Structure to design on (167 residues):
């Protein structure tokens, strides 16, 4: 398994171990793949993910936009992924029913010294776009954390920092 995927999964585990919002809303989120600047995930839709009309709650998509934007930052080796400054999501069509999988691809579209910009596309089981979001994060204080790492360009190996999850 590539170092970038191992690291991004470790960051996600720290979100869950915190027992906060992420652990309550989508504890079974699966990170399918990660490479520098991109993370792909899947979430099985459960009853508690729906609104009273029976479709995926918009708040779930918004929360995933936030969290997946953070994980996109993590794919660049950032242990601390900053705080939100702007976030938005547009809803295209219902995301599926209980038992279906909601897929998402989060891309880091820009990373500077202070701000990171991400885009998240959500697709249903048929591969149709169901929603897309954007997320801007302040990362000015997260760029120098002692658990940060630097990956090779392809994300296969760590070139600076500690790869704690070596296969």
């Amino acid at each position: 398994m590539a170092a970038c995927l191992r690291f991004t999964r470790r960051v996600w585990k720290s979100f869950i171990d915190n027992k906060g919002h992420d652990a309550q809303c989508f504890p079974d989120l699966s990170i399918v793949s990660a490479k520098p600047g991109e993370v792909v995930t899947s979430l099985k839709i459960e009853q508690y993910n729906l609104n009273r009309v029976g479709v995926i709650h918009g708040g779930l998509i918004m929360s995933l936009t936030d969290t997946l934007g953070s994980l996109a930052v993590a794919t660049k080796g950032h242990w601390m992924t900053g705080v939100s400054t702007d976030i938005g999501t547009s809803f295209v069509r219902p995301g599926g029913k209980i038992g279906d999988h909601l897929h998402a691809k989060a891309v880091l579209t820009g990373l500077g010294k202070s701000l990171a910009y991400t885009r998240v596309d959500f697709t249903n089981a048929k591969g149709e776009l169901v929603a897309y979001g954007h997320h801007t994060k302040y990362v000015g204080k997260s760029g120098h954390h002692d658990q940060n790492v630097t990956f090779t360009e392809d994300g296969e190996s760590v070139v600076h920092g500690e790869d704690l999850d070596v296969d």
About this structure: The longest strand covers residues 101-111.
